[in-house]
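thread: overnight batch results

M.L. [08:02]
morning all. the overnight job finished for the chain we discussed friday. pasting input first so we're all looking at the same thing
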Amino acid sequence: MRTPRKVVGALIATTALLVAACGTDKGGSASPANPDSLFGGTLHVASVEDIDALDPLIAYSAESWQVIRATTRQLVTYAGSKDGIGDDTKVVPDLAESWDISPDRLTYTFHLRDNIAYSGASSRPITARDFVYAVKRFPDPNAQVSAITYFNATFAGFKEYADEFAKVPTGDLAAVKNFIDSHEISGLKALDDKTLQLTLTAPASDILDILTLNFVTPLPEEVTSKYFADSLEFRKNYVSSGPYQIKSYDQGRQLTLAKVPEYNSDGDPRKAYTDEIVFDTTVASADAASQQLQTGTADIALYVRAFPANAIAQYKQRDPDHLHTSASGSAVFISWNNPAAPKTPAQAALKDLKVRQAVNYSLNRADVVRGLGGPDSAIPSNEILTSTIVGYNNENPYPTPEDKGDPDKARALLAETGHPDLTLSVAYRNTPEFEKIGTSVQTALARSGITVRLVPIAGDSWGAFRSYLAEGSNLNQWDLAITNWTPDWQGNSARMTLGGWLNSDFAPGGTWNGVTYNNPQLNAAVARAFAAPDPAADWKQANKIATADLAWFPLIERVKTIPTSERVTNWTWQSLGNNADITNISVNG
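M.L. [08:03]
and the structure it wrote out:
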């Protein structure tokens, strides 16, 4: 299971350098001597899509998280980082100025700041009861919170409350309000206007990280309960708890955020340097956004997966101070279809670790990186966890020269296991990016004698692809699936993968993101990690177990390479948005 040091020491050293390099921003980000000079001006954002969600209940894309970083506050948050996405992991106070933790680590008592208030459609003070209301809204059958599993697993009484809420008919706002007003979550109490008490089902070392997510944003019931989640009416009557409020919103065209007058910024790490942030949501493509950055008509871009390679090359040559690079923690991987009763011969074969090893040795990760734009866009990945996550080992139990694969070793393993003519059906999202990856996988596996039948899945949304993989009637249509994930938070965030998708004690049966896996040894390591005050060693062990067993096939980790206009200064990364912290960057002119 361990990497033979003599054989691949140089390779690991090279990989470590790549990860370290990607984790350090190379653009100009030094702060001026006079911080007051950072304030003022308008940040112009070229957005290739309209903002997909502004309601903190359902916002679950990195892009929407970038936006509502400016309009919402939580009990705790991250301050942003000049160095890289993976460096923005220290939890700091936000609306809660302090908190107490009981000796058994089950009860957290948060003390809210003085003089905190809403803006927009409400201007009243923020109270502890507003946090209770926001969490009680999570299981609304009209628009369930996007990451409800975290709260089912950690908040005492939440699952029971959610199960009852599911019985409320959809389409009836009055019924929703009546349920929320007449039911409580046993583990969540407002002791008074300034004191919130949270009781957990079990100790959770990552609970403060979970509370940084925008879902746990206070909301005034008297306004929010009038509208369906993230409806146009909700957006037109938006309530902000952050330093910016919605000044205007023209659906499909433009969103303008303006600084809140006389905002109480005590304890807020969002410095809110610019007076306004204007999102032009009519930009046609990544190419168009890139052109706007280069001409200065926009300062940053939104909803751009990767910028054109020629634009990045021009920035490197002409304006490297406005090109920012960081490892992202986001991964593309290949899951294997593992139903209890295999539906295809390939699914039966993949239950043998040596067959999975053969597939893994066949992969040409270097070619995938090349196809995605080179090291400015991706680096090879050989572990379940990525480089920004606690538990990452920087080890490769199955090394190959330059990450190009080892077809000879793969063929030998296939012959040994009696599968010299293995045929695999590989599902992928029908987008240009994933088609490139699928074609690379098909070509690489052919070198080992493996026949790949590509199965493009219509629709470019991740949700549609996930639904296809989870549908029982489709289980005989795919053996492998090329899929992806982005950590909901960086650092201590292995709960999502090792502790979630791969942990059969937590996710028994079914398929989530193409993953159906059961390993009692992994489950035991995960249980230790959840209970440990410092889980790093246990997450490392869990990662080692899952990686060696090829719980899925790691492929690449995405790299964020972000160009900006020459007006942008004080560049700051935001880990939750996996991109720029729009509240902490500044503009000149």
